[in-house]
Design brief:
Blueprint (H helix, E strand, L loop, with lengths): L7 H12 L1 E6 L17 H4 L4 E2 L12 H17 L3 E6 L2 H9 L9 H14 L1 H11 L1 H6 L5 H14 L3 H5 L12 E5 L3 H17 L2 H9 L16 H8 L5 H25 L3 E5 L5 H12 L8
Parallel strand pairs: 1-2, 1-3, 4-5
Helix pairs in contact: 1-14, 3-4, 5-6, 5-8, 6-8, 10-13, 11-12, 12-13
């Protein structure tokens, strides 16, 4: 695991070779076809010789959720293990890691009728009033959800109206499908400045590799819009706004880099909250040292190169 631009891809390739492993991507953007440059997707050359899973599995106008990921990842883990190999999960979508390890609540599917009913009430009374309604039935959810976040407010109220049970209570009823406890490692930089420099360099590299050509293709696809989940990914959102005329030439790139920094900050916050994780100093250890640190934890007999 690790923040964006920390070097997960390069380390995972060496680790997969060392451990006789297949890689399962844990990235909410890499699942989409046609989103290659802006996601820093591993190239075909990088993937050669090592099986990679959950990359290019869905078109960007479709949705891919944490529930989809858990189902797919569990099936892949079992399949990989059945062939006598290790499953190496690599990525920065921390919500996916958490969902896989802790399980997901069995929440009802979206109901168009209930959603319209809630939208009508909100139009009449306002979303702050809907938040007060949520506070009365699910105070824990109300603490997490801002009064000006209509999408999440609507979902929490919808779940209660469909089930008669607070969403927070349903979310406590989770169970992981993993059959073994995984070894967990996080690439963590000691220097935030190092990470910011890496983010800026990678974004510049994306632009040089014609990210905007990729973006034009997506922007001109009538099946996509600014509200499509795939287009809300960091970088893509700002590029879409630029093509829509909402951002000037330089403004959108600056906003994209700033948004990537904020993403990295959230990822590092997630990592600090997770238990039983071995930190790997990605800005001070060489690639060989990082590899040795991980393999020594997994196999104490592996030779150290500290």
């Amino acid at each position: 695991m690790g923040a964006t631009a920390c070097g997960k891809t390069a380390l995972s390739l060496s680790l997969a070779q060392t451990l006789n492993a297949e890689i399962i991507s844990v990235d909410s953007a890499l699942v989409y076809r046609g989103m290659d440059i802006g996601t820093a997707k591993p190239s075909f050359a990088e993937r050669a010789g090592i099986a990679h899973h959950l990359i290019d599995v869905i078109d960007p106008w479709h949705n891919y959720s944490a529930a989809h990921f858990c189902d797919d990842a569990n099936a892949l883990i079992n399949d990989i293990h059945s062939r006598g190999k290790r499953a190496l999960l690599v990525g920065g979508t921390m919500m996916y890691f958490k969902a896989l390890e802790q399980g997901l609540a069995e929440l009802p599917e979206a109901n168009a009728g209930v959603r319209q009913e809630l939208a009508n009430e909100a139009a009449e009374h306002g979303w702050p009033a809907m938040h007060e309604q949520l506070t009365a039935i699910d105070p824990l959810a109300a603490l997490r959800i801002h009064p000006n976040d209509p999408k999440r407010l609507q979902r929490a109220l919808e779940v209660y109206r469909l089930t008669g049970v607070a969403m927070s209570d349903l979310q406590l009823q989770t169970r992981s499908k993993l059959t073994a406890r995984p070894a967990k490692f996080a690439l963590v930089p000691g220097s935030r400045a190092w990470l910011h420099q890496r983010i800026e360099q990678r974004f510049s590299h994306m632009l040089e590799n014609r990210f905007m050509d990729e973006m034009h293709t997506l922007y001109n696809d009538k099946r996509l819009s600014a509200d499509t989940p795939s287009m809300r990914s960091v970088g893509y959102r700002q590029a879409w706004e630029h093509l829509d005329g909402a951002c000037q030439d330089q403004d959108w790139a600056t906003k994209a880099v700033a948004a990537t920094r904020q993403l990295a900050k959230r990822q590092l916050t997630w990592l600090r909250s997770m238990s039983n994780v071995t930190d790997i100093e990605c800005d001070t250890l060489s690639s060989d040292q990082q590899l040795a640190r991980i393999t020594t934890v997994i196999n104490p007999d592996y030779p150290r190169h500290d």
